[in-house]
Amino acid sequence: MTRMIQDKIEKFMEVSELQLDPLFPPKIQFEVTNACNQDCVFCYRSQSPRGRVNITEKTVDMVLKQGKELGVSTISFTAGAEPLMHPQLLTFVRRAKLYYRYPYVFITTNGVAKPFRWTELVEAGLDSIKFSINAIDRENYELVHGADHFKLVMAAIEHLIKLKSEYKFYLGISFVECPENAHVALKAYGFWKPYLDRGLDEFFTVPASNQSGQMRAYPSIGMNQCNQPWLAFVVTADGYYRACCADMDNKTALCDLNGGIKKAFYSRKAKAFRKKHINHKLKGTICYDCLNHD
Ligand code: SF4
Question: Hey, whose CA ends up nearest to atom 2 of ligand 1?
Answer without folding.
Answer: 287
